[in-house]
Amino acid sequence: MAFAASAPTSSSSSSSLFSASFPSSQSRDLIKCSQIGSLMSPDRAVRALKGRRRRCDRVGPVLAESSKGIASAATGVIADHPEVVVEEDYEGLAKDLAEASPLEVMDRALEMFGNDIAIAFSGAEDVVLLEYARLTGRPFRVFSLDTGRLNPETYQFFDAVEKHYDIRIEYMFPDAVEVQGLVRNKGLFSFYEDGHQECCRVRKVRPLRRALKGLRAWITGQRKDQSPGTRAEIPVVQVDPSFEGLDGGAVNALHSQGYVSIGCEPCTRPVLPGQHEREGRWWWEDANAKECGLHKGNIKQEDVANLNGNGAAHTNGTATNSDIFNTQSIVTLNRVGIENLARLENRREPWIIVLYAPWCRFCQAMEGSFVELSEKLAGSAIKVGKFRADGEQKAFAQQELQLGSFPTILFFPKHSWHPIKYPSEKRDVDSLMAFINALR
């Protein structure tokens, strides 16, 4: 669980992230909050003078505004009783919570921010957050982003959650004019053609920003094992893996239909046993792109500088990186070689080929497993090869070899000219061998 601080002023803001780690690797919680600045707005000054720790009995909307009467009264109070605001030591707080339980972290968050913090709820992991919040005995707020494209089961799930926890979720909706412009210009399913980022920006990111304007902090549920390009560095938090709604908690009916990670209806599909759960989200895009934009702050800045929209480095063929997959058991194919292989209808032996770019960090990450695969297949009837598909070869690979992102793995069957694309993001030796054995 972590506190991410940024100054809530109209000037430029700074941000930092502090974490408290716990042993489990299953579910992760993240608390992001606005830093208490050196200046306090008039309405907050009044609340501070009345007692900073006082709890509110009623929950106001996310975008609640202070009345003019309170603001004018605050002006007089500040003139007579200027207050020195002490900034929170988030770094020290992170150390204090280093060995705390998730319940203790939740309790501290609700204690610190009171009515100015809310839980961002979308389902699955977030139910655990609601359970922890309930166990604290403190009042808490919950908001959710209704994109307008959710499954009917998700809406039923939200209703069940409200009834189970006796809460009222504060829903945020996208701007109707923005949605209308997007749909009229690009159609209802433009994300299948040019990526999901634009649609998510309109339907998720901007509504979230509007919600956060009325808060000092927000709590989200994220998992470290999801989206390797963005969530691998989030703080570790322990969540009870046995909590699955067994004690009467609400469960999305889609989970029983093979859906694991659930988002908008057109961008979500079931996954097979053994597949990574995020493979059911934006399945037409590469692993590093599988964030809607709500949690892009998890990406390291040095990674941002080195990535393009396809989860790959900016360079396109002129990289200085040395070549990879260098072993005698892997055949290096040039353009002519891969073209000839693709044209053959009756090959003497099947091939498994990786389309790669040496600068791609995902290609680099799978080098060891692919080399090991080639060694296992050495002497068998299956040939292992590589084709560098960046630079001048990228357009050809995209058009003729199903290249979508790096790396792309193709299996060329013995008695069929059409190559079969490896569908998974699990590129360990066992997964690759299972793919080959199913087709050989």
From TrEMBL:
GO BP terms: sulfate assimilation, phosphoadenylyl sulfate reduction by phosphoadenylyl-sulfate reductase (thioredoxin)
Keyword Transmembrane tagged: no
CDD domains linked to this entry: PAPS_reductase, PDI_a_APS_reductase
Top-rank taxon, per record: Eukaryota
Ranges where the Thioredoxin domain occurs: 306-440
Entry cofactors: [4Fe-4S] cluster
Keywords, in A-Z order: Iron, Iron-sulfur, Metal-binding, Oxidoreductase
Molecular function GO terms recorded: iron-sulfur cluster binding; metal ion binding; phosphoadenylyl-sulfate reductase (thioredoxin) activity
HAMAP family reported in the protein's UniProt record: CysH (MF_00063)
Protein name per UniProt: Thioredoxin domain-containing protein
Source species: Stephania yunnanensis
